[in-house]
Backbone:
């Protein structure tokens, strides 16, 4: 049996919702001072009180990230209701903890991450979209507009997105070459590709992308060189960052028989 591309990816399950029939689950929001050992003291105490942590999301908050917000999904079956209450009371007494919120679901055995209300990335609101949603959108659009029109539309959508990201990266980092490396890293961090590498060439840059989501999905609809969103995004990014025009082509693609998708950007 051979693995499909999707099965080869080492998936990290987002700790957003859990369903464990016959178990008692709760979501606990704990804000701690952002100092070494604060989160460890919370988790250690939960362990001693027989709470099993199923999922955890943690992020620095505040202008200087002086606090850390943690959403912890726990199985408290062994600790029981009184054990869970003791944990919450003990957290409220911990001098490293600034806020505690307990959420218990009305659906037995089911709990969602109730604490983090909205996500952000690069100072803008972020949402989580699964690939079946994207595939549904793509199928409908390709069916209505055809391959050529979709290529043009996606290229221009990517162009705008690339310019936006470049503006944010420039704000964070002064060095242009470091920004360009960060562009490749962010594509991976956001899950668009499982591995990325950026190489400087004599005429520009070459970006290699493994399991690029755009080509993985579009490949179910059409064949050939199918990256247009990321091709546009790479172009827009370089233009906004450097003030110079770059032409970006997809020179290798998983839908043209290659192992990876490779975008080549050249100065024009
Ligand atoms: Zn491709």
Residues:
């Amino acid at each position: 049996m051979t693995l499909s591309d999707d099965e080869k990816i080492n998936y990290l399950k987002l700790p957003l919702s859990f369903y464990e029939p016959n178990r008692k689950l709760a979501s606990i929001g704990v804000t701690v001072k952002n100092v070494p050992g604060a989160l460890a003291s919370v988790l250690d105490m939960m362990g001693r009180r027989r709470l099993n942590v199923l999922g955890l999301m943690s992020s620095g908050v505040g202008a200087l990230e002086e606090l850390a917000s943690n959403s912890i999904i726990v199985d408290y079956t062994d600790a029981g209701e009184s054990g869970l209450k003791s944990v919450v009371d003990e957290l409220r007494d911990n001098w490293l903890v600034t806020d505690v919120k307990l959420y218990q679901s009305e659906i037995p055995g089911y709990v969602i991450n109730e604490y983090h209300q909205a996500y952000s990335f690069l100072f803008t609101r972020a949402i989580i979209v699964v690939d079946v949603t994207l595939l549904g959108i793509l199928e409908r659009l390709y069916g209505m507009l055809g391959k050529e029109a979709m290529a043009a539309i996606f290229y221009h959508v990517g162009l705008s997105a690339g310019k936006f990201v470049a503006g944010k990266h420039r704000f964070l980092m002064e060095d242009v070459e470091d920004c360009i490396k960060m562009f490749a890293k962010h594509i991976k961090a956001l899950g668009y590709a499982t591995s990325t590498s950026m190489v400087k060439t004599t005429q520009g840059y070459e970006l290699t992308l493994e399991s690029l989501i755009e080509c993985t999905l579009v490949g179910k609809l059409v064949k050939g060189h199918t990256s247009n969103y990321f091709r546009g995004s790479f172009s827009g990014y370089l233009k906004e960052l450097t003030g110079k025009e770059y032409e970006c082509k997809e020179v290798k693609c998983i839908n043209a028989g290659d192992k990876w998708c490779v975008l080549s950007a050249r100065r024009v």
Notes: The mean pLDDT is 93.
